[in-house]
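USER:
Before I trust my own judgement here, I would like a peer's view. Write it directly below this note and I will take it from there.

ASSISTANT:
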Amino acid sequence: FIVPQSTLRVPPSALSDQAFDLTAAIANAQPGDVIEVPAGTYAGPIVIGKALTLNGHDRPIITGDKTGTVVTIQAAAVTFSGFVVENSGIEPDQNHSAIFANNSPRVTLRDNEIRDSLFGIYLASSPDSIVQHNIIHGNTQLDIGRRGDGIRLWESGRTLVADNQVSGARDVVLWYSEDLIIRGNTMRGGRYGIHFMYCNNADI
């Protein structure tokens, strides 16, 4: 458990996105800090490489340039909540995603909206995490077999996937992840609802 060292709080009405530098705020923060992000549009990609909490106020948008992953998490105990994330690349062999957590246990992704991205939320080797109350729209401009998965878990056991809405994506794929809890999710307009492979002891 990490006690927050400081909180960067910015009243959403006081600053525009031009006045708040999200990349600099992440770079300057210390592990355990909380960053309150005001409304606005921020250019991706961004990388979170330390244990931080990012709270979006009034749905700030992080937008990619359609060439890669928009938000990459590379640390344990990151919370990312309240954002719109859009415009990832479309190369499946490079795992282009709206939000990609890699080797990042205890990640919390909550109350985000994903648009125009290949993979929506992708957790790789990130166990004991929470994916909850997210709205994920797949890239319906691609054929259904070419679309990425709305949610994908790989070797991310003991994760809670709850109360998410996934539409127009390929699948929700859960691979090599034991002791998952899957509840209250809605999947529409995809290929499979939930696609399991080697996930022992899942509670659905």
User: Anything to note?
Assistant: The first strand starts at residue 7 and ends at 8.
